[in-house]
Design goal:
CATH architecture of chain B: Orthogonal Bundle
Helix content of chain B: over 70%
Strand content of chain B: under 5%
Number of strands of chain B: 0
Shape of chain A: elongated
CATH class of chain B: Mainly Alpha
Shape of chain B: elongated
Distance between the termini of chain B: 47 Å
Oligomer: heterodimer
Order of helices and strands of chain B: HHHHHHHHHH
CATH topology of chain B: Rna Polymerase Sigma Factor, Chain: A
CATH superfamily of chain B: RNA polymerase sigma factor, region 2, helix turn helix motif
Chain lengths: 193, 199
């Protein structure tokens, strides 16, 4: 065994070496003076390291613990409620209220937007001599079709003039009306024509 | 490795998972000295060590649910503290005091400890440690501190740093060699200094 291969092993302590490695070192040191010298110097450095290990440092525990707890209190909200089926720290009542409020806010926002914005109302198609359409509230509808704008008699008349079974229309509102009332519209259109 | 009673730790962790802040405070107080000692040995000054310990315990609080109950808490805590310290060392790469400490070796980074008498038992030895270990690459430094100063077994060091045990031993041998060479060099400088004073 060469010195180059033995040298790294000399820096390891007995409990870090395998039986085979210990035997190799022992055999090598019997015949190698320079490695024996190195081994002695390493032993001195181990003594120094042991002394350093005995040196202890202590924090100002009260102050440091206080700082940690302050930060934990500030971070409590960041703690999610559950992960992997386990309960993890956090104020669960607070989190429940927070979640409920979020869901409620989204729901009421949706309701508000659906009542205010154009294009989210409903249209009812009537036929009494001519076709007509009007935006009405949900509760009065038997059959609802969402449209983007109010539908006037003129719009429907215009649309009926261009109507064909094969090629209806690409406009979303008209397509929806046609799909929903296809048969009725076709029958009436035929009657009217 | 000095270990806090395992059953007590497990009991506290169960309570922490239910949101018990007092249990967390108790757990932190039980392990505070160990975590500070490691951080101080790695970073070499009180302010950085305290910051790293705070960051580490915040991570412990946030991730306690990820901790497997059957695992050893000390090992997990050591991992969090050493990883946090590693981040601090990386940040410090750009700071002047790091280079002063690393390249000149004998010039120490200023310590801002307000009450050094409560912090140091042996200032001279700590300075020596800082001067010696300051020359080690971060990984070797971490392994040297965990194994030789904290007294963890090579298996425990490998687990904390998530490394192969043979690699740990290899790094350890390199670290000890560097420290031996540096210590001998310092000793020679010291002898030369005393010789000069005599003459």
């Amino acid at each position: 065994m060469t010195c180059e291969k033995i040298e790294p092993l000399l820096y390891l302590k007995d409990e870090e070496l395998s039986t085979g490695e210990k035997e190799m070192i022992s055999e090598h040191l019997k015949t190698c003076v320079s490695c024996r010298s190195l081994s002695d110097r390493i032993a001195v450095s181990f003594t120094l390291i042991n002394k350093l290990a005995e040196t202890t440092v202590q924090p100002d525990a009260g102050s440091l613990l206080g700082k940690i707890m302050d930060r934990v209190n500030k971070n409590r909200e960041e703690k999610p409620g559950k992960k992997n089926g386990e309960t993890i720290p956090g104020n669960r009542v607070f989190l429940l209220v927070k979640w409920s409020l979020s869901v409620a806010a989204v729901f009421f926002s949706f309701l508000l937007i659906s009542q205010i914005l154009p294009g989210t109302g409903k249209v009812k198609i009537n036929y009494s001599g001519t076709f007509s359409g009007e935006v009405v509230s949900k509760s009065h509808l038997l059959e609802d079709v969402p449209v983007r704008n109010r539908v006037s008699d003129k719009d429907i008349e215009q649309w009926l003039k261009t109507l064909s079974v094969e090629n209806t229309t690409t406009k979303p509102m008209e397509k929806l009306i046609f799909e929903k009332y296809r048969q009725q519209i076709l029958n009436n259109a035929l009657i009217r024509r | 490795m000095k270990k806090v009673d395992r059953k007590e730790t497990e009991h506290l962790i169960r309570k922490i998972r239910k949101g018990d802040l007092r249990a967390f405070e108790k757990l932190a107080s039980l392990h505070l000295n160990t975590s500070f000692r490691v951080a101080f040995r790695v970073l070499g000054n009180k302010n950085d060590a305290e910051d790293a310990v705070q960051d580490s315990w915040i991570k412990i609080w946030k991730n306690i649910s990820a901790f497997r109950e059957k695992a050893d808490f000390s090992t997990w805590m050591y991992r969090i503290v050493t990883n946090t310290c590693m981040d601090y060392l990386k940040q410090r790469m750009h700071r002047l005091d790091y280079f002063t400490d690393q390249r000149v070796g004998l010039t120490m980074a200023p310590d801002h400890a307000q009450n050094p008498e409560t912090l140091f038992v042996n200032n001279e030895q700590l300075n020596l440690l800082r001067r010696l270990s300051g020359s080690l690459p971060p990984k070797q430094k971490m392994i040297f501190i965990l194994r030789d100063l904290e007294g963890l077994s090579p298996d425990e060091v490998a687990e904390v740093l998530e490394m192969d045990k043979d690699l740990v031993k290899s790094h350890l041998a390199h670290a000890r060699k560097t420290l031996r060479i540096k210590a001998e060099k310092l000793q020679k400088e010291e002898e030369r200094y005393y010789d000069m004073r005599k003459n």
